[in-house]
Design goal:
- There is one protein chain.
- This protein has about 475 residues and is α/β, with parallel strands linked by helices.
- Helices cover about 45% and strands about 15% of the residues.
- The chain is built from 20 helices and 13 strands.
- α3 packs across α4 and α5 crosses α10.
- The longest helix is centred in the last third of the chain and has 22 residues.
- The chain is globular and about 65 Å long.
Amino acid sequence: MRYVSTRGETRSIDFEGALFSGYAPDGGLFMPQEIPTLDSTTLRTWSAFSYPELVKELSSLFISSELIPRKELNDLIDSAFRRFRHKNVVHLARLKNGLNVLELWHGVTYAFKDLSLSCTGQFLQYFLKKRKKHVTILVGTSGDTGSSAIESVRGESNMDIFVLLPKDLCSQIQELQMTTVIKENVHVFIAHGNSDEIDEPIKELFADADFARQHNLMSLNSINWSRIMVQIAHYFYAYFQCTPSMDMSPLPAVEIVVPTGGGGNITAGYIAQKMGLPIQLVAVVNNNDIIHRAVQHGDFSFSGSVKPTLASAMDIQEPYNMERILWLLSDCDSSLIKTLMEQFNTSKNLTLPEELHRKLSEALSSCSASDEDIVQAMRRCWEDNCYLLCPHSAVAVHYHYKQLDCHLGNRPRCCLAPASAAKFPDAVLRAKLVPEVPPEILALKAMETRSTTLRREDNWGRTLRDRIEAIAKHRHTQVEFL
């Protein structure tokens, strides 16, 4: 399997190359040159697989056995899931009135990003040990990505990770999960800006090809293909758990409701659909509704500044992974995507071509939820089921209740739950419910913290660059001394 840039001006690379990349040199995102398709016989066979087995099967389609032999691939994935609290890694909660909630948050940081990042961390170590390399990882986070990325590489001598998070825009627990990791290779920066603004210095460093090459820069944001690849398994598992039958022909459709901000998870869902999984996708957003407006009206444009919401990890106005979906929908027309994305990057204002918008609205449905909608969904789910939702999961469940109340659609539905309510006690209290916080999260408040502040007037790109160079110099000095 080879990987190409969505903008078409970069040579193709293998999985290892895509794994160690951030943005492609031409500014695009790496995608498989071909999306494999699965027939109904294969789907029926896979329907008996566990979640880890599905990750192994899917990964083997996108990673050649010459790069990682199948037995070693299986071992890496088993190692990745060893720290998960649930025996099945993920769990489907079957609640009243047809509400199915797929809990993707049983990893170390209580967030779905543990699933893809734990695997990605294993893949990185496999190649780094083999090549005797060191990498510098840059991550911008609106909540959960940073802590999951840190956990996947903490303490590793062949990786340094630099995480930028927006001040006061993550929950206290999300921030503490990052700032309490006191490891030599972990560097956390708290920036006086929003989720989109913290991406700018990261893009700036990747755009400096010489600097990126010198320090082996890479990203663990969902621009990294490995994360998208692992997340495809969510959809196969959800489908097999929720479909009424695997014996019907054609196989029945299942609706999967996906809370989304940067668009990585919905991209994985669309790829699963392209592979032949009979799912209907609903992208659900909060008040930062650019994806909803794009699906409904073809309006892929900023609508003022980022709006802080209860579902803070989704407070994103620039969903960079939509470039991957649009590329697939355009039949891989890299020239068109390059033109559209350059226009968007310049003006933050884009009306999708009519044909592309038509295809997008056929591939996805969409819905937006206000903070009041989120609170009401959290309360209703508790009153009906004694089940606590995090605010991001509540965005998806809001859609379910909306369909239920309007008596719309009778097909089976699965709502993806990206995080545990334990991470968002303030939102739980806002819904007039009682938070349930496990001891390991409570313990964070008494732990030592370490971070660097990036003020508005600082040159964030220069600060990052200087710190990376200083750490590299220190590392080389240590090597020479030894």
